[in-house]
Specification:
about 220 residues, alpha/beta, UDP N-Acetylglucosamine Acyltransferase, domain 1, 2 domains, eight-stranded mixed beta sheet, about 15% helix
Length: about 220
């Protein structure tokens, strides 16, 4: 029988363990288990069992209400997006999840399935899309907009009024100057400094950033 407090995690690994810690600290949901590769069924992460593979998702969606994608996003978010779309198509529900140590303004909007990790800061009039990660200690300042399926990595700073396109990754300790526009499918390297708008479909690194590669 479904419960509004049950939640199933989709994807194992280090990010999964971090999300588990956020869920435990928030004390809002009961973790049922983790969906991952078939060969991991029967194993566990910090005491929570792998209860099935992707092939079991149709059955699990009928049994449980809430899901969260717990695959990380560094080189690509293709797996995160694919799993989100699959569970969504089956009728799964994605709550947004906040660490109790994060600050999330009541005047912000957080899309479904997005996880706000420990000590992150989301200021007033921010909009964050669905299935995104706002990682530990990152800052998203006033009036910024973060697209769907993004990852704002540890310690990154998005200054006021920025626009971050869908499927983009902002690396650890990177800084985006205020009122800039970052395209879709952009990756910004760790500790990079962005002082100008960035076109879609590129990897940018450095201080100030330069285009490293396209596509």
């Amino acid at each position: 029988m479904k419960s509004k407090d049950d939640i199933v995690l989709v994807g194992g690994g280090g990010h999964c363990a971090s999300v588990i810690d956020v869920i435990e600290q928030s004390n809002q949901y009961k973790i049922i288990g983790i969906v991952d590769k078939q060969e991991n069924v029967g194993k566990d992460i910090v005491g929570y069992s792998f209860i099935g593979s992707d092939a079991d998702l149709p059955k699990l969606v009928k049994e449980f209400r809430n899901f969260v994608i717990t695959v990380g996003h560094i080189k690509s978010n293709e797996t995160r997006t694919r799993l989100y779309d699959l569970v969504k198509s089956l009728g799964g529900f994605f709550p947004s999840i906040f660490s109790p140590s994060a600050y999330v303004s009541k005047h912000s909007f957080i899309g479904e399935g997005t996880v706000i990790m420990h000590n992150a800061f989301v200021n007033v009039s921010v909009r964050i899309g669905k299935n995104s990660i706002v990682n530990t200690g990152s800052i998203i300042e006033h009036d910024s907009v973060i697209g769907d399926h993004c990852h704002i990595s540890t310690g990154a700073v998005i200054n006021g009024g920025c626009q971050i396109g869908e499927h983009s990754f902002i690396g650890s300790n990177a800084m985006i100057r205020q009122y800039l526009t970052i395209g879709h499918h952009v990756s910004v390297g760790a500790s990079s400094v962005v002082m100008k708008d960035l076109e879609s479909n590129g990897l940018y690194i450095g201080n100030p950033v330069v285009l490293k590669s396209k596509g």
